[in-house]
């Protein structure tokens, strides 16, 4: 597929013209509930519960023990793989537990967590900022971002250092401040109040990835945020603050790239494949904190909103803070709900929490507490009427109806044939569904089951490979033993043959030597016999002579 060239895209941006993406919806944004007041600092909870994995990737290795005292900002886990980032203590205090705890997940899963009892002193550990980052090797700056625990704060929490270490040439560095989901205003307030620090984070990213162009994208329903960013970037003409149309889900990574550049990220591809790298404004803020101040990621801005809270607003929250603690800070009113219901995230992509003790993590941007009139009840699903409204709304040009049927029937192979994994789970299909079917719920279940089956197949394949490798090793060792025994046998036979030959030779030589000795002995015996005969003859002659003399 031929994509718009870099020069064509720049011309379009300069002319104020943008591209678009298919589908999309225009829900009531409900942002005025929480964006009219400045960010407040949430009170310190009695206990902080910190999952060791708050990002996409592997869990870190816990490096503290129960009873240890930790300082604010001190690592409580270490990285175990390139896709791992550490977790840090949000305040000073004592480690009181290291055990599984329910975490933010649609299924209410438990993961290993570290619990800290704050001592109230909020004592920082040693901080090591890199104020001279421009004079440092880029790898050193990237490593500092990793060790600060920075992960994407606008999506799934992809480790930031992996993106910044991208080896592909970057044409566009995009900072995502769209925040298109209804109710959520944490990025809006962050841009209004901390535009300069976002700009500082952008400077660091610019230094690391060296893009040809830089775009800060903000939905056009946030005029105050746009103005604040324009002021912060006024001395940098290459930093473009671009308002984009308010349409959900314009803030999705693939959709925003399509809006700004007209380029589509290929199936199973990455933004880098089309020359784009993207970061959330909250991630920029965290990068500036990490490099310029040496502070690890230990807090974030969270929107607490909905008609069931009296004081909806944005809070600066320590990671590990229980959801119930934030609800108390926003004056939760349970009487306005038919049954207790808290959604982490927005109404489109969020999920209901199974437990109010679930902690805030790096990817928690909103807690929605709706009244019984605000959102559709979970049991309102009716049969599909095949109207195709879901397909019209899908920003990924999929067929949600077909995927739903196959996912519900557990025909996962057929669901994959309809590109199930290209679904971004934006919820636009469920929003327009007249039967109020929770389509995304079915897609998530199907994806989880497919991943589980893949894991099982991979485990079985690895087990098979290990079994075959073991059999091959045993067969090889057997062959080696047999070969060793054969060679030893041949050596023994050779030695035996050599010994026999040597013995025979020795016997022959001995026989030859014995015959010579016998001849010598015989000769000596003959000589002795001859001598004895001669002596006897001489004696006889003397006797005869003597007798003759006497006669005369």
Automatic annotation (TrEMBL):
Keywords, A to Z, come to: 4Fe-4S, Electron transport, Iron, Iron-sulfur, Metal-binding, Repeat, Transport
State where composition is biased (Low complexity): 493-511, 521-540
Q: Where is this region: Disordered?
A: 455-552
Start and end residues of each 4Fe-4S ferredoxin-type domain: 373-404, 414-443
Upper lineage is:
Bacteria, Pseudomonadati, Pseudomonadota, Gammaproteobacteria, Alteromonadales
Please give the name of this protein.
Electron transport complex subunit RsxC
- Which SUPFAM superfamilies does this UniProt record tie to the protein? alpha-helical ferredoxin, Nqo1 FMN-binding domain-like
Q: Where is the composition biased (Basic and acidic residues)?
A: 455-485
């Amino acid at each position: 597929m031929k994509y718009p060239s870099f020069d064509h895209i720049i011309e379009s941006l300069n002319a104020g013209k943008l591209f678009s993406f298919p589908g999309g919806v225009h829900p009531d944004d409900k942002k005025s509930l929480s964006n009219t007041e400045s960010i407040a600092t949430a009170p310190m909870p009695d206990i902080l519960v910190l999952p060791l994995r708050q990002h996409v990737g592997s869990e870190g290795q816990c490096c503290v023990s129960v009873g240890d005292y930790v300082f604010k900002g001190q690592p409580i886990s270490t990285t175990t793989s390139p896709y791992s980032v550490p977790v840090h203590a949000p305040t000073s205090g004592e480690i009181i537990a290291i055990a599984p705890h329910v975490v933010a997940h649609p299924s209410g899963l438990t993961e290993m967590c570290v619990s800290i009892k704050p001592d109230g002193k909020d004592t920082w550990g040693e901080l090591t900022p890199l104020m001279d980052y421009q004079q440092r090797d880029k790898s050193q700056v990237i490593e500092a971002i990793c060790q600060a625990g920075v992960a994407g704060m606008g999506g799934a929490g992809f480790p930031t250092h992996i993106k910044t270490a991208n080896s592909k040439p970057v044409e566009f560095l995009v900072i995502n401040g769209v925040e298109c989901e209804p109710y959520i205003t944490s990025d809006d307030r962050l841009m209004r109040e901390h535009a300069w620090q976002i700009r500082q984070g952008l400077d660091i990213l610019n230094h690391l990835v060296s893009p040809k162009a830089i775009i800060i994208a903000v939905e056009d329903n946030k005029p105050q945020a746009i103005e604040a960013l324009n002021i912060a970037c006024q001395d940098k003409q290459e930093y473009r603050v671009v308002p984009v149309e308010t349409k959900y889900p314009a803030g999705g990574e693939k959709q925003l790239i399509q809006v700004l550049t007209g380029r589509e990220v290929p199936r199973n591809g990455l933004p880098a494949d089309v020359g784009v790298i993207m970061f959330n404004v909250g991630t920029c803020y965290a990068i500036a904190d990490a490099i310029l101040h040496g502070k690890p990621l230990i807090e974030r801005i969270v929107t607490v909103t909905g008609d069931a809270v009296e004081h909806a607003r944005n809070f600066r929250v320590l990671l590990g803070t229980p959801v119930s603690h934030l609800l108390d800070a926003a004056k939760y009113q349970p009487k306005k709900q038919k049954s207790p219901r808290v959604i982490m995230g927005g109404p489109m992509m969020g999920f209901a929490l199974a437990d109010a003790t679930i902690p805030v993590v790096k990817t928690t941007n909103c807690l929605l507490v709706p009244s019984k009139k605000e959102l559709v009840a979970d049991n309102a699903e009716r049969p599909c009427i095949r109207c195709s409204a879901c397909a019209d709304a899908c920003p990924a040009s999929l067929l949600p109806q077909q995927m739903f049927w196959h996912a519900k029937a557990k025909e996962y192979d057929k669901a994959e044939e309809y590109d199930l994994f290209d679904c971004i789970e934006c919820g636009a299909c469920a929003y327009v569904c007249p039967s109020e079917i929770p389509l995304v719920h079915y897609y998530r279940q199907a994806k989880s089951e497919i991943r589980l089956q893949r894991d099982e197949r991979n485990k079985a394949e690895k087990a098979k490979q290990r079994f075959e490798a073991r059999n091959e090793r045993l067969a090889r060792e057997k062959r080696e033993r047999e070969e060793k025994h054969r060679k030893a046998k041949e050596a023994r036979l050779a030695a035996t043959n050599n010994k026999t030959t040597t013995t025979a030779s020795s016997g022959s030589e001995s026989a030859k030597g014995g015959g010579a000795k016998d001849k010598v002995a015989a000769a000596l015996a003959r000589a002795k016999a001859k001598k004895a005969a001669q002596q006897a003859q001489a004696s006889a002659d003397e006797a005869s002579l003597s007798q003759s003399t006497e006669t005369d």
